[in-house]
Amino acid sequence: MTDRAVLVTGGSRGIGRAIARAFAALGDRVAVHYVQAADAAAEAMDSLEGQGHVSVQADLRDPGAVRRMVDEAATSLGGLDVLVNNAGVFLEHRIIDVSYDEWRSTWERTLAVNLTGAVNVTYCAVRHMLLRGGGRIVNVSSRGAFRGEPDAPGYGASKAGLNAFGQSMAQALAPHGIAVATVAPGWVETDMTNAHLKVPRGDAIRAQSPFGRVATAEEVAAAVVFLASPEAEFASGAILDVNGASYLRP
């Protein structure tokens, strides 16, 4: 039982919900962030063990909304010990197929949520962590940051930027007792990927891993919980692949 105050962005469904559940199961108090899906956030809240949890809303593209959301989470939880930057969008925009306007707008939206949004949430969360004398930040990146995303290049680039940001923050924040690490999943079985994982395409996706399957959201959550633990402090700056050996980087 740890009784930490934890903020999970994009915590209403999929990987984010599994992360929120994993922290709650340890005895932590969790702020579940959502953008528009209030019903999904309510369902996620109902699934959490323990007491003292809260849901918080913000469009991460809006810097003012980000600050209000983080402050609301910290006030409701009595501080902030752990931040998980999980929220993200995956928008296809093949360079050969889209118009210039669509190309630019998709890049702007993807970077605004996946990178700048996480950057701003981190800035605001750190202010509360400093009052606690330390904390943990875990970013949820992607295998696509390393192998490329030809159908969604903005997604791959945003996650690569998130990796670099996390490593910069690991160095900047260590003197203040804040460790920063990253998990980089491959394909994960969630409600958002179910359509992709149906046959026949799903068979090819599962075959990318020598295990012959994709990850569960709970497996990603377990990696996040470990990196947020006191024992993982010296893993600060690390990027942990959770892709079932489907992509091995040097």
Task: Give your account of this protein's structure.
The chain has 250 residues and is an alpha/beta fold. Strand 7 (188-189), helix 7 (201-206) and strand 8 form a beta-alpha-beta unit. Helix content is 44%, strand content 16%. The protein is built from eight helices and nine strands. The termini are far apart. It has a seven-stranded parallel β-sheet with strand order 3-2-1-4-5-6-9, sandwiched between helices. Strands 7-8 form a two-stranded parallel sheet. The protein is globular, with a radius of gyration of 17 Å. Helix 1 (14-25) packs across helix 8, helix 3 packs parallel to helix 4 (100-132) and helix 4 runs parallel beside helix 6.
Strand percentage, roughly? 15-25%
Give the overall silhouette: globular
Please describe the biggest sheet, giving its number of strands, its sense, and whether it closes into a barrel: 7 strands, parallel
Mean pLDDT rating: 97
Number of strands: 9
Radius of gyration: 17 Å
Fraction of helical residues: 40-55%
Low-confidence stretches: none
Write the element-wise H/E pattern from the N-terminal end onward.
EHEHEHEHEHHEEHEHE
Which class do the helix and strand fractions yield? Answer: alpha/beta
What is the count of helical runs? Answer: 8
Through-space gap between termini: 37 Å
Question: How are the strands of the largest sheet arranged?
Answer: 3-2-1-4-5-6-9
